[in-house]
Amino acid sequence: MGDRNSTMTREEKTLMQALSCVINTLPRALDGDLRREQELPLTEYFALASLVDAKDRRVRMSELAARLSITISGATRTVNRLESLGLVERERSSSDGRGADVVLTESGYERLREAWPSHLASARRRVLDHLSEDEVRILTRALGAISAASGDGAD
């Protein structure tokens, strides 16, 4: 009963409790800040940010879902709303012509630029201001390893 696979140390239990708290509260807090200040849900913000970083500011719907760690149906709902606001468009896939690409419009780019300062202030206040540069590097590596071991989360 005392082997590593059947028990946790006090530090491991504390880590898992802290991680659970962050997983459950941080997205809601960041989302609430962005909705209050910009009337833009966090998922929509991240969709726009993902598109601005993509080649030609376009991605397949399935790739957008993977980038956002949400289901394709969730990505479709997000894109539908962004499309209704004129922030993205759907175009026939540039790679194979079968599926649809989501393309960032100039209005979508401007909306992202408007929202960026609010998101940055929220991220700093809620996360970054509480960590040293070394802690940021270590946490980035650790979360990357956890993410890689957990899969893409969009199942």
From TrEMBL:
Record-linked SUPFAM superfamilies: Winged helix' DNA-binding domain
Domain HTH marR-type: 12-148
InterPro entries: HTH_MarR-typ (IPR000835), MarR/SlyA-like (IPR039422), WH-like_DNA-bd_sf (IPR036388), WH_DNA-bd_sf (IPR036390)
Gene3D superfamilies attached to this UniProt entry: Winged helix-like DNA-binding domain superfamily/Winged helix DNA-binding domain (1.10.10.10)
Pfam families: MarR_2
Protein name as catalogued: MarR family transcriptional regulator
Lineage: Bacteria, Bacillati, Actinomycetota, Actinomycetes, Micrococcales
